[in-house]
Amino acid sequence: GTTSWSISGITLSNGDNIITITARDRANNTNSDTITVSIPQTTMDATALYNFNEESGTIATDSSGNGNNGTIYGASWTTGRSGDGLSFDGANDYVNLGDPLSLQPNTVSVSVWFKTTDSNGIILRKRPYGYGLEVRSSGRISFWIYNSAATLFRAISPIAYNDNAWHHAVGVYDGSRVRLYIDSVQVASASAGTICYTAGGIAIGRDGNFNGSYFSGLVDELGIYNRALSNFAISESFTRDDLLMHIGALKKEAGRDFRLVTISIPKPQEPVNENTFRFSLDRERLRQAYRREGRYLLRSNMQATAPETVWENYLLLTRIEQAFKDLKGSLSVRPLWHQLERRIEAHIFVSFLAFCLHTTLRNLARGRAGGLTSEAILEKLSGIQMIDVHLPTTDDRHIVMSRYTCWRRTFYFFWHNWD
Question: Taking every annotated instance into account, which residue ranges of this chain make up the domain Laminin G (predicted)?
Fold first, then answer.
């Protein structure tokens, strides 16, 4: 005969779910039936998802189906990263999401594509307390949560992303840590307490229901999740074009070493995931590189010194020498001849000063403007015409003297009196 059956009370996962039912009669005869239920990978498990593809109107529709629609104030429709997007002017544009309880979970993730030159503005905020994602005054990205004692727990990117290019930011809070991902790579994390919510508001483009910290730039595909997204779920937001762009940048940075890695990329229209994107180390090419790798023969009379120390000292000397060569052109210094011992001492002394100067400027720029070279800093400083000289005295006074800079006269006096 014919038997009908149904199943309830089980949870299906994304992908193929294979279900097998076995029936057994009193004579111990069995018969099985198998079905496959496919659940596609989707971002529709978001608590709120804003694709901003409406093209017009004042409503930002929640595509998750949970009804968390937003009201647009001032922000204008424009071309987004994928389809349409919203443009915020940094003055008074924002999207009001109300204050729904569904957007106040115990664990939370925020995902968004943004493009900005702004150096201070909030992309999304649940206020007060709650969570937020912002562009800080330095152009760096920050994701944070507050606990009930108003203690701030924050993950901040080490570099700026206000370069007028599209970037994908994901902030994750899992109950004990906050993590920040930029372009599918974790860039910061920090320990965190228990998130706290009170009555207030949630907004895109400003500080929640507070009139301030308006964002200037473009926003697209913003999602809020009531769970901590995994690394794999975050990487799925990346397209094949995004992947190729980053591989190209890594190839340029790695140079010839890039050939030591074998990469399998997704086909056009395929998603980026652990099955379509793989990479491995080409061990045969690595062995060949080891065999062909060059060697240094360093001779020294420092017999009592460990070889590692001798090598480190040699590298330090080469860096000092290179710093002197870099600085020599800008100072118009003539070549130094080494027949006289005092000339050698002078060469080393000036080289060391140049090394200290370049190293100091490079380290200062690294935390503030990574693309700024020490040469560029020196060029900017050369335009300063007047400086204040501060001199403390032995009788606890402090003398300040304004002086015009005459570095050439001082330099040539110093240089011609080496002997």
Answer: 106-227
